[in-house]
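Budget justification note: compute hours in this period were largely spent on complex prediction jobs such as the one shown. Inputs:
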Amino acid sequence: MSKADDIIHQPVRLKIMAALNALRAGEAIEFTRLRAVVAATDGNLGAHITTLEQAGYVTVNKDFNGRKPRTRIAMTRGGRRAFTQHVAYLRDILDGEAMKDS
Amino acid sequence: MAVSREEAEQALQSITSTERRSATLRGYRGAAPHLILWGLLWAVGYGLTELMPARGNAIWTVIVIVGIAAGTLMTFRQADRSAAWRLLAVTATLIAFCAGVLTIMAPVGGRQAAAFIPLVIAASYVIAGIWFGLRYVAAGIAVALLTLGGFFLLPGYFYGWMAMVGGGALLLVGFWLTRD
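Corresponding output:
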């Protein structure tokens, strides 16, 4: 059975990882768009991204798009692997429970 | 960390809905430049056709070639080669369909052809939207209603109407798709 990932399982971080998982490998998403997908406040989203960055699950790239500052977030290979394992863990729970029910 | 069955179920639902929303918004971002491009091309194409209706075929041949070339280039620059080929295939299918129908239904006037093609495009937006996002449905319905409105209510100014309102609608929807 796969293991739970405490860092990913927090609800906002779970959404962040799910949003990034829907992108192609190496593709980044802008902070503003990620905020719209996750429906979190700037401060809350920023704090959770920092946690994921420290765990090595995402990379944060800050640059300028013309004169406007831009922050883009991408999932690392390790982050995608960890997310996949966590999803497998969640499915294992449901499958295990389903087997008990039958 | 112990996760209950209920928590696992909720988490998986959250993952599914978030992934879907992320993919939809990603699609909107990818489609937006194409709608803006075609909005501009419609404005130019219908505008020139209003001024020189006898040269409609030549005008639209150039407009379509420019649109396909620019759209393919934009998709390649978005680093999505398979999408570029699929977009070309969809465009070729729509052109072949419109050409086939117009040939079968011939003779048709320029105004009829100029209304039929936007209606086919509007229908394709609605069909795409049913699968990939409601904003495409809204775009398709808006283009269809504006086309029909112009065709029946303003027959004398149809090309000008399509240049301003049809092209304008595509531009507006294109900018709407860039918004989250």
